[in-house]
């Protein structure tokens, strides 16, 4: 099975030291991977919210003579016709197929389990464990924190911004936290970027689940694992980030020796209270 257009773009960008503006261009290209080979430099600049000369410098930074050479390369490696178009799928089916492709790419990424295993060790060792997610990412953070609380002794959900956010990070650090898990999804709130910078300055190791390795939070993350979002509907869909969150939960459980005992204890209490309908 061939790589997705987004995966090919990720591979093209890997190993290059990009400026924040260039990372913004790269991020925009990944989000619109299927369209990028057919965009002019002016159109790409408008998409990324940068100047046209910035797009030219970006292409040169990747080793091309200019943007036309980069676009020619992208057209050469792009599939001639999408499977969705061939199958005549409607827009809802196309959105589902795009998410399936995102999950396939995540599966390929997990062929090397070492980043997830490292993240699991970091999260398991942090007592307490702050979990950050604002706006679009709040549901991802809340879901992770809900399940993590069943096996981890002290999980602290940070899903509200404002002036108290830094205070809560300070509180977790004073209580012994060594790592922070962040879910960062488009559109990326400025508060999240600032919170991660603050967390690192306080001595926390930042593990981030983001929609792209070139997301704005990348510069403030010690370990970033990407999981693409779907962009085929009016609002982004986040199946891959959600699944990656569950994978991180599994990796964290592997490094918590009493995880199974805690789960069994919870099940026993739940049964005694009649918490769930059988």
The poorly predicted ranges are 80-86
How many structural units, i.e. domains? 2
Give the C-alpha Rg. 20 Å
What CATH architecture label of the largest domain applies? 3-Layer(aba) Sandwich
Structural class: alpha/beta
For the record, the CATH class of the largest domain is Alpha Beta
Structural shape:
globular
Number of helices: 13
Distance between the termini: 42 Å
Largest sheet: 5 strands, parallel
Mean pLDDT comes to: 89
Q: Count every beta strand, where a strand is a DSSP E run of 2 or more residues.
A: 5
Task: Please list the strands of the largest sheet in the order they lie side by side.
Answer: 2-1-3-4-5
CATH topology group of the largest domain: Rossmann fold
The run of helices and strands is HHHHHHHHEHEHEHEEHH
What is the CATH superfamily classification of the largest domain?
A: Glucose-6-phosphate isomerase like protein, domain 1
Please bin the fraction of helical residues. Answer: 40-55%
User: How much beta, percentage-wise?
Assistant: 5-15%
């Amino acid at each position: 099975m061939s790589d997705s257009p987004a995966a090919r773009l990720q591979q093209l960008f890997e190993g290059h030291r990009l400026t924040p503006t260039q990372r913004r261009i790269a991020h925009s290209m990944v989000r619109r991977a299927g369209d990028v080979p057919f965009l002019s430099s002016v159109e790409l600049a408008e998409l990324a919210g940068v100047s046209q000369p910035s797009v030219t410098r970006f292409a040169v930074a990747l080793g091309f003579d200019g943007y036309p050479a980069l676009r020619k390369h992208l057209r050469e490696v792009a599939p001639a016709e999408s499977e969705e178009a061939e199958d005549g799928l409607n827009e809802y089916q196309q959105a589902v197929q795009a998410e399936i492709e995102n999950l396939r790419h995540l599966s390929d990424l997990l062929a090397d389990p070492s980043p997830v295993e490292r993240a699991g060790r970091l999260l398991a060792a942090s007592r307490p464990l702050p979990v950050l997610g604002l706006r679009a990412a709040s549901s991802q953070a809340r879901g992770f924190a809900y399940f993590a609380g069943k096996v981890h002794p002290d999980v602290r959900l940070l899903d509200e911004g404002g002036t108290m956010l830094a205070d809560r990070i300070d509180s977790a650090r004073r209580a012994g936290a060594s790592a922070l898990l962040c879910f960062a999804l488009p559109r990326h709130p400025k508060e999240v970027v600032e919170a991660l910078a603050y967390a690192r300055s306080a001595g926390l190791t930042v593990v981030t689940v983001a929609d792209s390795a070139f997301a704005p939070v990348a510069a403030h993350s010690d370990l970033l694992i990407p999981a693409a979002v779907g962009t085929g509907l009016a609002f982004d869909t986040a199946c891959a980030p959600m699944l990656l969150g569950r994978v991180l939960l599994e990796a964290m459980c592997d490094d918590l020796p009493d995880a199974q005992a805690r789960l069994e204890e919870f099940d026993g209490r739940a049964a005694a209270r009649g918490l769930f309908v059988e």
